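To make the argument concrete, we let one protein speak, a sequence paired with a row of structure tokens, as a model reads it:
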Amino acid sequence: MPEQKWAILTNTGFPQGVHENLPLSGPEKEKFDLREKYGPCMKELFYVDTNIHPGAWAVEGNWWLGPIPKEYAHPTHIHDYDETILFIGTNPGDATDLGGIVDMYFDGEPVEITSTCQVFIPAGVLHCPIVVKRVDRPFIAVAIANNSHHYKSTPDT
């Protein structure tokens, strides 16, 4: 096969240590580290940011295979940049069917997600946890940060 000039712009896999330098500390950092304990409930598909491709936005993709209770969910946080999360069902017979039930919290209030959708989170909006209440069919979640790195700040309380 001839050399593919643009192949360098593709990214597969989830680099080791990608979450090690997040500016979280104390209980929030410990809660975030529980991602390793999700076990068979979540599969990290891909991640890219400016460290991998200079100038790229931070994009992370995960395949959700089972429920994630609130106590293990991604912690509440805030960004100084916009973020979009795509929840994508995998039912080829009904693309709108998420295949599960997710509660995503905004400023402490849950929003139930049951369909394939896009969620826009403006800069400065307190969000998460993302609680995966039920999985009937695996689905994909993709977080896109309008920033070169995907970092979180814990809310001032």
User: Anything to note?
Assistant: The two ends are 57 Å apart (CA to CA). Strands lie at 42-48, 58-64, 83-88, 97-106, 109-115, 117-121, 127-135, 139-145. The domain at 43-145 is CATH 2.60.120.10 (Jelly Rolls). The longest helix spans residues 26-33.
